[in-house]
């Protein structure tokens, strides 16, 4: 078949008439407003430091006024010397191509103008189905005629300058460089505004065949020849003097190659540990309806939408977290020691750190510690991209007695007082949970307890009794309201409406949880019972600089990056829970007595300011936790083997999360004014 370019202009009145349906006209108008895909940028909290980018096609839209005249002239010289004379289709070019292709009995010459090329690129870039992609790029006469008609129509909608701007932002230059900004940066490490005639001619020459004329090849012969052709054309069109063109042709092609980072594994080396926060951002993004109807659409928006995203991580707090996790348990251990810090009142994640290196390279990792894993299964250390800290699809780790907070808070919110007493035995025979008989970790915990002493000493039998008084389902539902999700079949079954009332072991923390969930749940208590969804960003801006918004159920437009908060329990109940939670840390509650000792009494002295929290260990100390908070920050730290939960960390390492939280709160808040917790009311003290 003779190529579409061989059809004379008369085709537009024949075959072309059949192609000009209303759909084509509507598509033309769409192309006049549609912008090409653009790279999204992830920034550090200063809003200036680029941590990484997300893209399928590396591109940053650049206005024509921000491009050197050299590249504008070079692309016209290389691709369409009559660009400013025709109206979208060049009759002379069509006739010339027809003659040449007829003589060669094939395709020896094309007739595509810059406008026609832009139409083709825009149709390809705006395609949403494989069929649309095929229709935009297939080598058929019908496609070519549609392209001509749309080019003629487009020039009625847009100026030459607008078309040239869109073209230069859409063209592919090789090496994953889409658009002139990317090409300038990747090949010459500069902006389009600073391109010299030689550099501009080199880039313009690439559009015809990026691989054939690639100047990054060891042999630059083809690239140089093509560049020199463009320089000659620039001279013939009056853009360069003959002497300037001749001098430029003697210059070698001097490249300064740049490889733009892409995705979380390419976070700047200085910020490698921020990869886990970056990964959480992606998981969070994929769950936001503001960016699409499903995960696929949302991730496509991230890679093509040209967003400017500012991470919520606080560099000072992150540095403190990195320093204090893994200090005793390095990255070469199967036991992961991680920490997450959340800001009460906003839910913004301020730090995520674990004794692992965020990397896709697992080649040096040893075999997994899980005996059921195959011999080729690698361990999660020292390198991993697994979401060990939460926000992904991993279930987490049993959180032990840190869960005692939920039935206590439910009891306080239901009218119980901090002074609620029970003579807790060493072993308690439950009358509610089918004869279950849990015991305390030590005989020293037996005796009359209140919420202050029961929480401070972590008295199992007191909290099983308290849970019976208020109902286990209330603690379960409250935990859900505070952001916990059940990720295993066993947990989902126990938390179900028909089973939750009998889940007595819930208060002992037999469920899996992530440090992200626990930090955020305790942050709500620090915020007087106001829960805020965990959020990894300070700001998200559209490509035009406006804040990204979404519509609420009531139709109100809200910024995606703004905190989403709701009151879960009364402020007085939260303040009472905090007063009891000061006991485990060695702090002094405002209203009651801790009973003489506590499970983490070193924390107050380390932090050096009012602090509340709770320890947690599981059977045989397979994992150990500490969740602590001040009025300004909430932190959750754990130590466990993510590959094999039966690989016990042992009692000797149960202090590691306690130290990680205490030292990170101390270092992260250094220099900030000391804030006090608000005491609970007389009514709830009892």
Automatic annotation (TrEMBL):
Any one GO molecular function term: serine-type D-Ala-D-Ala carboxypeptidase activity
Gene Ontology cellular component annotations, sorted alphabetically: outer membrane-bounded periplasmic space
InterPro entries associated with the record: Beta-lactam/transpept-like (IPR012338), Glyco_trans_51 (IPR001264), Glycosyltr_51/Transpeptidase (IPR050396), Lysozyme-like_dom_sf (IPR023346), PBP_transglycosylase (IPR036950), PCN-bd_Tpept (IPR001460)
Keywords, alphabetical: Carboxypeptidase, Cell shape, Cell wall biogenesis/degradation, Glycosyltransferase, Hydrolase, Multifunctional enzyme, Peptidoglycan synthesis, Protease, Signal, Transferase
Protein name: Membrane carboxypeptidase (Penicillin-binding protein)
Gene3D superfamilies (UniProt xref): Biosynthetic peptidoglycan transglycosylase-like (1.10.3810.10), DD-peptidase/beta-lactamase superfamily (3.40.710.10)
Ranges of residues in domain Penicillin-binding protein transpeptidase: 339-643
């Amino acid at each position: 078949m003779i190529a579409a370019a061989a059809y004379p202009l008369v085709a537009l009145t024949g075959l072309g008439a059949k192609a000009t349906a209303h759909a084509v006209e509507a598509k033309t108008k769409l192309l006049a407003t549609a912008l090409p895909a653009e790279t999204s940028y992830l920034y550090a909290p200063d809003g200036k430091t680029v941590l990484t980018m997300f893209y399928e096609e590396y591109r940053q839209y650049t206005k024509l006024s921000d491009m050197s005249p050299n590249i504008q002239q070079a692309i016209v010289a290389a691709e369409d010397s009559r660009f400013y004379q025709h109206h979208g289709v060049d009759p002379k070019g069509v006739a010339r191509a027809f003659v040449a292709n007829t003589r060669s009995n094939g395709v020896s010459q094309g007739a595509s103008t810059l406008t026609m090329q832009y139409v083709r690129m825009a149709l390809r870039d705006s395609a949403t189905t494989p069929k649309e992609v095929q229709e935009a790029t297939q080598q058929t006469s019908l496609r070519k005629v549609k392209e001509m008609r749309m080019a003629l129509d487009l020039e009625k909608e847009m100026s030459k300058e607008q078309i040239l701007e869109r073209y230069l932002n859409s063209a592919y230059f090789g090496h994953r460089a889409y658009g002139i900004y990317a090409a300038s940066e990747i090949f010459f490490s500069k902006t389009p505004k600073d391109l010299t005639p030689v550099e501009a001619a080199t880039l313009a020459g690439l559009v015809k065949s990026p691989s054939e004329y690639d100047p990054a090849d060891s042999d630059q012969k083809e690239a140089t020849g093509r560049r020199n052709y463009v320089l000659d054309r620039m001279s013939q069109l009056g853009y360069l003097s003959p002497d300037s063109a001749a001098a430029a042709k003697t210059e070698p092609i001097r490249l300064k190659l740049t490889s733009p980072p892409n995705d979380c594994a390419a976070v700047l080396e200085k910020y490698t540990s921020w990869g886990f926060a970056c990964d959480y951002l992606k998981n969070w993004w994929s769950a936001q309806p503001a960016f699409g109807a499903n995960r696929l659409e949302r991730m496509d928006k991230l890679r093509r939408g040209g967003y400017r995203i500012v991470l919520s991580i606080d560099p000072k707090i992150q540095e403190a977290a990195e320093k204090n996790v893994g200090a005793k348990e390095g990255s070469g251990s199967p036991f992961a020691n991680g920490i997450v810090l959340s800001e009460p009142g906003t839910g913004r994640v301020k730090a995520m750190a674990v004794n692992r290196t965020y990397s896709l390279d697992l080649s040096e990792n040893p075999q997994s510690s899980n005996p059921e894993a195959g011999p080729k299964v690698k361990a999660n250390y020292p390198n991993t991209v697994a979401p060990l800290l939460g926000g992904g699809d991993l279930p987490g780790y049993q959180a032990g007695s840190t869960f005692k907070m939920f039935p206590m808070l439910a009891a306080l919110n239901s009218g119980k007082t901090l002074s609620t007493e029970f003579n807790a035995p060493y072993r308690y025979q439950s009358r509610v949970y089918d004869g279950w008989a849990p015991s305390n970790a030590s005989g020293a915990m037996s005796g009359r307890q209140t919420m202050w002493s029961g929480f401070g000493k972590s008295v199992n039998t007191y909290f099983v009794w308290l849970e019976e008084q208020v109902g286990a389902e209330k603690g379960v539902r409250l935990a859900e309201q505070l952001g916990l999700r059940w990720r295993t079949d066993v947990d989902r079954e126990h938390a179900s409406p028909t089973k939750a009332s009998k889940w007595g072991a819930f208060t002992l923390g037999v469920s899996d949880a992530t440090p992200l969930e626990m930090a955020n749940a305790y942050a709500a208590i620090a915020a007087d019972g106001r829960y805020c969804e965990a959020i990894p960003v300070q700001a998200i801006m559209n490509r035009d600089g406006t804040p990204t918004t979404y519509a609420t159920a009531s139709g109100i437009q809200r910024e995606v990056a703004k905190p989403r908060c709701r009151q879960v329990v009364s402020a007085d109940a939260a303040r009472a829970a905090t007063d009891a939670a000061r006991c485990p840390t060695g702090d002094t509650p405002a209203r009651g007595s801790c009973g003489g000792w506590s499970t983490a009494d070193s924390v107050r002295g380390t932090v050096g300011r009012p602090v509340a929290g709770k320890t947690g260990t599981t059977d045989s100390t397979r994992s150990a936790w500490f969740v602590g908070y001040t009025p300004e920050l909430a932190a959750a730290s754990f130590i466990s083997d993510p590959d094999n939960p039966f690989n016990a960390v042992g009692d000797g390492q149960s202090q590691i999360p306690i130290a990680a939280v205490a030292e990170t709160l101390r270092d992260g808040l250094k220099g900030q004014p000391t804030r006090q917790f608000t005491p609970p009311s007389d009514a709830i003290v009892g």
